[in-house]
Amino acid sequence: MNPSEISPLIREQAPLILAEIQKAKNILFHCHPSPDPDSVCSALAMKLACEQLGKKVTVIRGDAALLSDGFSLFPGIESVVGKNFNEVDLPEFDLFIALDSGSPDRVSAKNPPIFPLSIRSINIDHHKSNTQFADINLVEMCTSTTVILYQLFLLWGIEITHGIALNLFMGLYTDSGGLKYHPVDYRVFQIATALVKTAPDFVDVIFHMENSQNKQAIYFEKIALNSIETFLSENIVMTSISLKQIQENGIAIDSIHTDIPNKLKSVIGWNVGMILVEREPGIVKVSMRSRDIERFDVSKLAVALGGGGHRAAAGIRFSGISLDEAKEKIVSKAKELYNL
Ligand SMILES: [Mn+2]
What we know:
Helices cover 36% and strands 18% of the residues. The chain is α/β, with parallel strands linked by helices. The strands form 2 sheets. It has a 6-stranded mixed beta sheet with strand order 6-7-8-9-11-10, sandwiched between helices. Strands 2-1-3-4-5 form a 5-stranded parallel beta sheet, covered by helices on one side.
């Protein structure tokens, strides 16, 4: 990427963020609930970059009880500490940098922290629904959080080592659905090219990630696909799985990353695909995908119901609700928002 093509917003914020990092001695990063590669790899790439700047860095796992086996080749993954945000001694740190997290409940959904924190905070993210909750906020609508970090690292003069390159690439690759989702453009390919030049083993890392599926995930999909329901002239298509079904089948829900909403929205006319998972009594997590981001912007539906996300991919976490009540709320809000 030609440095002149770095976005003006990133160019403007880069020195402010660097100044905060330089002031800090001990920096905290987290993985968001149901961590995906962009969350984990952003934190790991930032850890490696801040260590180049001579900082002490801790990355915590956050809400998740475990990280997917498929992530085990991400450089630095072994350093992630198995703690949630409320389990760290915050005054030990000078700075918290939230990555890939649109709101405080993406720091922890179980115990969302109240901002401003007692320490300085920075929020670097690419979600349209970001609530700008930190002391410094860099929110740029682009392919992945790692794409923002790459541009920051160029401006900060960070050496893009193999570990940094591989982490940045994996966030970019996965959040773009393998370089095919909006807003991928030639600059994203230029970044990807630079990164894989330094990390030519990316093919093995993708293979490992995509082929470390546990068999429970397949049984999970079997149950979910048995429950397909269509609403509002088939524009909205849902699958759901109850806590009882999860428990009866011994499914470790934290280890499940399902592609079902994408599969559903691959059908012509099934414009929004969703899965609803009753994770705990009264807690229903919804993940949704749109095949028509102009007409069916799912971030709007998610935000209207207390969630967040992107136009093509968004999520909601309901609490104090049953699966059927969650379905009703979604259908009635979709009917109103999308004029169905
Ligand atoms: Mn992301």
